[in-house]
Structure to design on (162 residues):
């Protein structure tokens, strides 16, 4: 044990324990510092390994979960229609980038809507939360349908009249 609770004069260990005290304090301080820094990481946003050098469509987040596409504010359904039109016109739509608007941050609603559109249209979607910042890929996960609850077997009912 590092510390003795008895009389310091009676223990020969107290001298070595007092020498170790700064090291223990420094180790404790570094552990707390490392734990504090580690708590700031964002677990959901991961730097995409294979980010394209250019994107086929660039969107800007606008208010009320709308997307600015070529100057027009579009809802999720309107965005799907616009991308289908591009596809019908044989224009590329393989990659879509969503950037932060001047006054609007990219919120979860935008990410969910973009992930739905990307999944339904079979395209790759990316977000850039700050100009010049890292670009992250948005991936939709299909939720497995839950099995309906099976009815509980009813206990044998006694026959009427018994």
């Amino acid at each position: 044990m590092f510390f003795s609770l008895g009389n310091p004069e009676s223990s020969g260990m107290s001298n070595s324990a007092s020498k170790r005290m700064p090291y223990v304090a420094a180790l404790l301080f570094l552990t707390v510092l490392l734990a504090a820094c580690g708590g700031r990481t964002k677990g959901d946003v991961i730097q995409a390994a294979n980010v394209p050098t250019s994107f086929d469509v660039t969107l800007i987040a606008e208010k009320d979960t709308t997307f600015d596409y070529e100057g027009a504010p579009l809802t999720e359904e309107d965005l799907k229609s616009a991308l289908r039109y591009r596809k019908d016109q044989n224009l590329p739509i393989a990659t879509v980038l969503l950037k932060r608007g001047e006054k609007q941050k990219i919120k979860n609603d935008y990410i969910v809507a973009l992930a739905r559109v990307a999944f339904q249209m079979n395209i790759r979607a990316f977000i850039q939360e700050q100009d010049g910042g890292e670009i992250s890929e948005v991936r939709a996960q299909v939720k497995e349908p839950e099995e309906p609850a099976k009815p509980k077997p009813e206990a044998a009912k006694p026959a009427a009249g018994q």
Notes: DSSP finds three helices and six strands in the chain. Strands lie at 57-62, 66-69, 72-74, 95-99, 124-128, 135-138. The first strand starts at residue 57 and ends at 62.
